[in-house]
Structures are given as C-alpha cells and as structure tokens.
Specification:
Strand content: 15-25%
Oligomer: single chain
Order of helices and strands: HEEHEEHHEHEEEE
Distance between the termini: 25 Å
Shape: globular
Number of strands: 9
Helix content: 10-25%
C-alpha cells in the first residue's frame, strides 16, 4: 500500500475479492481533488488498453470523473460498483496473490532499455499478462485518498465499502459480480511516460 488513509473494511474487501475472483492482483481506487479525479492514471489501463480517463493534449484533468469512456462493459461494471478486469492498476493499495512471486519468478521491476517507461505497477501487470496470469482486478467499492481530510471527501462522494457490498445481482441465472476473465490482453496499450503530453501505443507484453 501507498501512504493512504485506510479503513479496515477496505483491506477486507480487497482480500475477499482477490480470493473470490481468483485474481492475481486486486486494486483499490485512489482519488484527489475531493474525490473528483482518479489519481493513479499513469499506471492504470483498462481492457481497451487506454488510460481509465481521457487525457487531452493540454493534459488537463477535465475528464477525471469520466472513467472507462471507451469501454462500455467496464463502465457498466464501474457504475454498479462491481469488480472488473483491467490491464493494469494500483490505486493506492492492492491485494496480491503470492504464486507469481514465489513460483514464477515475477518481481517488481523498472522498465528495461527499449521498453516504454512505466511505473512498477504497470510493469508488474505486463509481466503477469506475459505469463498468462492477467487476472488483474479493479474493485470500485474500495475508494481511498492520501489525507484524513481528502479521505472524508472521498468516502462522502464515492462511498464506503459497506455502502456497495450488496452488488451481487443475478441475471439469466448468473452472478453479475463474478468476473468472466479474458485470457488475452488488449491488442495494444497506451504508453505515457510520466505525466507529459507524449503518448503512443505499444505491444501489451
């Protein structure tokens, strides 16, 4: 976890969803500007391969609350506060499965020469996909911030875990909270080196 303000139920929900969904990593969502803007955009990519939010040429965060604008399934899940598969995430705190580290040799690492310069959470997700373990989960019911004051705004705007836990709805006999995992990553992933204007598409693994 990062230097976030944490409620015990945030940890419990991440651990529960990581096990229940058989995810390799389960991420929270971290927010700034009184819960209006998703913070971890630099290392978060949806199953479209793009950032969770749209970043215009002037790098404003005007669309910081319009997540998953280009991936309808993800947006529907997010709006229901249901877990969803993403390419990469972190969000201030994650629950990680141990197998990739203890058995498969995956490590936190920096980008290598010739590779898009990414934060360690994104290279971790990339290595999970490369090893055919791309079960990366975003848990929208877990919303965190980086100060007591901000956390109060975030929980007020985005809700506590206990506000959203009753999201397991049945449709056609199937549980909608249960993620149907895609085994292949997006065809390409957006590279954005830190928070600058330059961005381009790269191979996902």
């Amino acid at each position: 976890m990062n230097d976030i303000v944490l409620c015990p139920e945030d940890v419990y929900e991440l651990l529960f969803q990581q096990v229940y969904q058989d995810a390799m990593m389960a991420c929270a969502m971290d927010w700034v500007y009184q819960g209006k803007v998703f913070y971890d955009s630099w290392v978060a990519r949806s199953m479209s391969g793009d950032l969770f939010i749209e970043v215009p040429q002037d790098i404003r965060v005007a669309f910081g609350d319009n997540l998953f604008w280009d991936h309808r399934l993800s947006k529907d899940k997010w709006e229901r506060h249901q877990p969803l598969q993403v390419y990469s995430c972190w969000g201030g705190v994650v629950a990680l499965a141990s197998k990739p580290f203890t058995r498969d040799g995956i490590r936190f690492r920096a980008s290598v020469k010739g590779e898009c310069y990414m934060g360690e959470p994104m290279t971790l997700a990339k290595d999970l996909w490369r090893s055919e373990q791309g079960r990366v989960l975003l848990v929208p019911s877990v919303n965190v911030a980086y100060s007591d004051r901000e956390a109060t705004f975030v929980k007020g705007r985005r809700g506590y875990v206990h506000d959203h836990v009753e999201v397991d709805v049945f449709e056609d006999g199937k549980r909608t909270e249960k993620v149907i995992w895609r085994s292949k990553p997006p065809g390409q992933v957006k590279c954005q080196e830190e928070w600058g204007p330059d961005r381009w598409w790269v191979e996902p693994v």
